[in-house]
Amino acid sequence: RAISDPNTLLHYSSMSANKRNLKRQREPPDSAAGKQPKLAGGRARESGWLLKEVTEHRRAPQSTAGMRVTQKATPNTQKIKQGSDGVLYCSASQPGVRGPLVVLDCALVLFVLQIQDSTFFVADNRQYAFMLKRLREVAKECKSLDIQFHLLSGEPGQNLWIETVKKHLPADVPFIQVDAHNVVPCWEASEKLEYGARTIRGKITKLLPEFLTEIPLVDTHPHSASRAAEPVDWEEVLSSLEVDCCVGEVDWAQPGSCGGMAMLESFIEQRLRLFATHRNNPNCDALSHLSPWIHTGQLSAQRVVKQVKREKNASESVASFIEELVVRRELADSFCFYNHNYDNISGERFIALLNRQLVLEGKMHGFLRMYWAKKILEWTASPEEALSIAIYLNDRLSLDGCDPNGYVGCMWSVCGIHDQGWAERPIFGKIRFMNYAGCKRKFDVAQFERKYAAIKENSNKDTKKPSFNN
């Protein structure tokens, strides 16, 4: 249920424009170089006011009018059939019961399932401790609301586990996906991979009034489960993780929603009005520092935006901050949502397999060698460096190296020799452009990748010295 807008929210009393200008003139010119700029005067609010305000709002009478749920359902069914045993809320990355959950019109037991990947290869003790301490808080909140909390440790799977779940669900069981990470869900903001901020900004801005609603309250659940969830031994969970323990926890970021609220409060009180002009100065503390809590779902971006927009004396910084938190951040989420190569240079795995073919077989397909050389051009600092690397690797590793055909092939790819000029573009200039998508249009790239991915990387380690008896 939605939370009413506060009627008693206190704002800083601002100085007059003349006084602010005089104050700026008195400030030393080196403030941008390292000295923390002084804030305009104002009546400070009592420490802890934000958490107190949110707590009071949760107790106030509320309604669901105007609330927009950030969800999408499977096409087979959106209704829950009679006789169902319950609703499972499965969270893989956004732990919490105070954020935007799915609103369901049903009288069923609610179960919360958190999947904790204990094998994620880049995570360390610092990250897992931060997440698990929040999860312990979530478990307590669930218990107080009569919601069953279950923790599963393990590996959800290398592929999209969402698609796996949908595939194995019976046709009459609805599956609803919620984008609790963004204000405007990825699939609503855009239906395609966007070129940049300028192409998505208008789309998000248009939808903000529809989605930037108050966060629904989670009431004590009226339907009890017949069997309680097993209690979680949090110390055992933390100690059993296969993570890098050399990276320790940090003191400045306290995990949990209370820690996130405290950081948001300090940002509003101390740093927000500096954000527009000083956020790029590392010597000036003008950032929000909220990313750890927002990233792990311990603090909702929607709540942050709603709260920051209430500050009337820092309009320039508010607009600048929302541009970063909403437009730029959701552009990044949209990129990862629509681009399966979001964590590597487009086709980088494909290039790695081309290198494997060259190393293991001493030969590379002619078309692929052209593409390979063009990627070297794309990834190096100059055409001269790209040509030098391409010729060196081709001459050294290919059985047909040190051949005029090889030299001209590299020159065609990097310098455009024997080719016509094409429409000018960044990096390539007027050199013919080739990309991963073009390869996929010409042949079955996946088949090639499967073939060379299956070849053991060490299959050529037992090579012998040249001998006439080989």
TrEMBL record:
Q: Which reaction does it catalyse?
A: cyclobutadipyrimidine (in DNA) = 2 pyrimidine residues (in DNA)
- CC cofactor: FAD
Alphabetical UniProt keywords = DNA damage, DNA repair, DNA-binding, FAD, Flavoprotein, Lyase
GO terms classed as biological process: photoreactive repair
Reading the lineage from the top rank, the first entry is Eukaryota
Transmembrane stretches in the record are none
Molecular function in Gene Ontology: deoxyribodipyrimidine photo-lyase activity; DNA binding
Start-end of Polar residues biased regions: 1-19, 61-79
Chain residue ranges for the region called Disordered: 1-44, 56-79
Reported EC number(s) for this entry are 4.1.99.3
InterPro entries xrefs: Crypto/Photolyase_FAD-like_sf (IPR036134), Crypto/Photolyase_N_sf (IPR036155), DNA_photolyase_2_CS (IPR032673), Photolyase_Class-2 (IPR052219), Rossmann-like_a/b/a_fold (IPR014729)
Q: Does the keyword Lyase apply?
A: yes
Q: What class of enzyme is it?
A: lyase
Tell me the function of this protein: Involved in repair of UV radiation-induced DNA damage. Catalyzes the light-dependent monomerization (300-600 nm) of cyclobutyl pyrimidine dimers (in cis-syn configuration), which are formed between adjacent bases on the same DNA strand upon exposure to ultraviolet radiation.
Q: Which family does it belong to?
A: Belongs to the DNA photolyase class-2 family.
Full protein name: Deoxyribodipyrimidine photo-lyase
**Organism name:** Sinocyclocheilus grahami
